[in-house]
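Person: I keep going back and forth on a fold encoding question. Show me how you would write down a chain together with its backbone fold. Please set it down just below, with no commentary around it:
Helper:
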Amino acid sequence: MTDRAHAMAARVETFVREVVIPYEKDSRRDHHGPTDELVMEMRGKAREAGVLTPHILADGSHLTQGETAIVLRKTGLSPLGPLACNTAAPDEGNMYLLGKVASPEQKSRFLEPLVRGEARSAFFMTEPAEEDGAGSDPSMMRTTCRLDGNHWVINGRKKFITGAQGAKVGIVMAKSDDGACMFLVELPDPAIRIARVLDTIDSSMPGGHAEIDLVDLRVPADQMLGASGEGFKYAQVRLSPARLSHCMRWHGVATRAHEIATDYANRRHAFGKPLVDHEGVGFMLADNLIELKQAELMIDWCAGVLDTGSLATVESSMAKAAVADALFRVADRCVQVMGGNGVSGDTIVEQAFREIRAFRVYDGPTEVHKWSLAKKIKRDWKAAQA
């Protein structure tokens, strides 16, 4: 790891602890998450502190994945930290994808406002399960696109589209005769209609998670990302780093929840001594310490594989399944240690529990990753028998 990553991580941690955490009591939020007014105010302060979009350097290059892990774990010390520092999903993953695949003209128009923290984005892939649409299996995609002159016409329905309400940049996936395609669109667009914003257990995403109707959406041909039929290939570019950056950010949230639970257990007395001196409580905190370190090492291992140039599909599945489940256990113990205070909104512990529970589903549920790994085990066994 380089000095630049540790130096940036230290600045980010100071900013999140001193500037962002006080915003956790700010009332500017709706049922689905913080308002854009609050987000942009925090981003202004991050810009002044030199910690806005800290994973992307001035020349447009990125920190390595190993360096990014150091920095993004610090942005996650508050649920608001990734929003303030512009490292939140889906923007962080979308910026990574555009940086790898977009043309110079597309980068200027769609990527640069995201990097500057002036716009939010949305990734339109998941579709309604009740219509047998794409979810964990993207090959089930039903949204279509057809070429009409120098425009593509897109029709379909999307669901669980994070941040669509209020986003200015969209990446839309649809299926042509050639296969999956990706398109860049400016938002809002009258052909992209928000049917509703769902009620979900998490509350850290501005704009929430929307159900969308795409009705004769016309997109100029030069706004296709790459070539027709190569959408799944580009999705693979985004997939593993995005899975891993989720792990990085939520590791920071779980770390903070553990800090709060530890402070509570040392200050709170019951049955004649501090809670931490009761073996049941002390052992839960000890288990947290163990699993936080294991999760950190898993993240760093997978980041190292990505930094070799590998897509790290297998490694990111292993990391996502292991880290998401471990961090959920950490958050659950924090709630338990704090008792009634753990289920209240007086601290971020109950929010950490809710957010990390949702993380176990997002970017592929644990079971899908394990199923994928089991298929690899079978393939490797068959190869060994040949």
